[in-house]
Write a structure and sequence with these properties.
It contains two helices and no strands. With 71 residues, the chain is mainly alpha-helical. The chain is elongated.
Length: 71
């Protein structure tokens, strides 16, 4: 590839990155809503463990996204 083809590919990928972030964000939101609904159906006895699990998932997702963006 010559320099102009490389710039075109970089520009194209630069346009796609926000789209993929939006798709991932929507999928995460859907997953959280579905799991929150299931959690509410089970009752308050499992809320503590579920909140701990969801909180750790959110922190893990934030760490992974930070690591991916820093590359």
């Amino acid at each position: 590839m010559n320099a102009s083809e490389t710039l075109a590919v970089d520009a194209f990928l630069g346009l796609l990155v926000p789209l993929w972030q939006l798709v991932i964000g929507v999928l995460v939101l859907v997953t959280v809503v579905v799991s929150a609904r299931k959690l509410l159906m089970r009752g308050p006895t499992r809320m503590g463990g579920a909140l701990l699990l969801v909180g750790s998932a959110v922190v893990g997702l934030a760490v992974v996204s930070y690591l991916i963006q820093s590359l």
